[in-house]
Q: What sequence folds into this?
């Protein structure tokens, strides 16, 4: 009898001890890394997730964009990765090549929320490697033309619809003093791949054909696009080099009457240049063969080493719901990656956001290869040599081709 009492007592003790242990663990823990403003504000949607998943502990680590790349690379090398991370679209190929990312195809197949048809083509392509998906678009950033509506009206012009109009409109907008000095420019365009590549894509050009692995920087399409880009600079329709002037200030005083940028500039202009509210607007990219723009933004990835992959996927599904995408826009002004979110009245009734929505249908990202940043630097260097140094365009592009070939080897 005593033995039976002892055994029963022991079982009760072990049961209680075991229960206490589970209670103390607080359920599962999900570790998320997010960058910049997104990292600061992600906590604001966590309560909505916790309402449905009260036993889940979520730890968010905010990382400045300036430190994010190095921290992620170090984390991969040291095998100390989070479950989920925000990843810039142009970083995807590097971390895929490292073998750090979880393939999400099987998760998508069984999902009632995430479907590849829900996303814009250019955005989704940043997640594709060998026809498999390794990330889910979270928000998108697409470039359009910001222009001073009042100044365009003053000079009797409208936003250019094509390359030819970009020149003719530009000549009317650029103001020259009696001494020949430029007083104000029609546009400002930097010698950066995000500014150069859209012109190449609009002419159906590519730096590299990923299917054939052919380097196409010397192709007629690329050459024509670069010549047009150089023409805008040489004819003083935009500054040859950076003037060292704050963009918002120059736009506010009319020194620059137009520039290409993303949706984040809407809030920046409203806050930093309230005196020109109602005097500016946005327009689609000027067309050659297409109107193609650059699409960026951020994706959400799950790391292969995560021990909470199912839970991580559940959180990604949560962030992918159209209503959460709308809520996220209200918090951050990040444009939704999910098409259905754009049906909300916030976007339908906003004329500027409708322009971004239309531009997203014709936007793409650079080649999904880890060497892209090096290749982009070559492109920048050679275009600068043509514009500033007067180098022959054929020679510059030939040199670019040789350097890119060396990088890819």
A:
């Amino acid at each position: 009898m005593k033995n039976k009492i002892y055994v029963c007592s022991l079982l009760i003790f072990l049961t209680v001890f075991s229960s206490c242990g589970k209670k103390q663990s607080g359920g599962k823990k999900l570790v998320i890394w997010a960058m910049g403003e997104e990292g600061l504000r992600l906590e604001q949607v966590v309560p909505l997730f916790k309402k449905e998943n009260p036993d889940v502990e979520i730890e968010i680590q905010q990382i400045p964009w300036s430190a994010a790349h190095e921290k992620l690379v170090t984390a991969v090398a040291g095998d100390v990765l989070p479950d989920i991370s925000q990843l810039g679209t142009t970083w995807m190929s590097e971390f895929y090549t490292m073998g750090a990312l979880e393939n999400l195809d099987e998760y998508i197949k069984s999902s009632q929320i995430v479907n590849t048809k829900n996303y814009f083509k250019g955005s989704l392509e940043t997640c594709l490697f060998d026809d498999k998906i390794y990330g889910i678009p979270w928000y998108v950033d697409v470039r359009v033309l910001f222009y001073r509506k009042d100044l365009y009206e003053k000079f009797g012009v409208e936003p250019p619809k094509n390359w030819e109009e970009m020149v003719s409109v530009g000549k009317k907008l650029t103001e020259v003093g009696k001494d020949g000095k430029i007083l104000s420019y029609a546009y400002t365009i930097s010698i950066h791949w995000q500014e150069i590549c859209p012109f190449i894509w609009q002419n159906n050009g590519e730096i590299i054909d990923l299917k054939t692995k052919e380097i196409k920087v010397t192709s007629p399409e690329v050459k024509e696009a670069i010549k047009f880009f150089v023409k805008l600079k040489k004819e003083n329709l935009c500054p040859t080099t950076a003037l060292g002037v704050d963009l918002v200030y120059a736009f506010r005083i009319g020194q620059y009457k137009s520039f290409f940028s993303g949706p984040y500039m809407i809030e920046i202009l409203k806050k930093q240049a309230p005196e020109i509210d109602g005097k500016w607007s946005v327009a689609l990219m000027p067309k050659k063969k297409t109107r193609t723009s650059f699409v960026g933004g951020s994706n959400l990835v799950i790391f292969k080493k995560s021990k909470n992959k199912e839970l991580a996927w559940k959180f990604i599904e949560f962030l992918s719901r159209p209503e959460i995408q709308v809520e996220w826009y209200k918090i951050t002004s990040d444009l939704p990656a999910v098409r259905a979110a754009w049906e909300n009245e916030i976007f339908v009734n906003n004329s500027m956001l409708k322009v971004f929505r239309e531009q997203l249908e014709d936007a793409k990202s650079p080649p999904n290869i880890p060497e892209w940043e090096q290749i982009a630097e070559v492109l920048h260097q050679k275009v600068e040599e043509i514009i500033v140094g007067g180098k022959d365009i054929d020679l510059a592009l030939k040199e670019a081709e040789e350097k890119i070939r060396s990088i890819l080897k």
Remarks:
- Residues 218 and 397 are 6 Å apart (CA to CA).
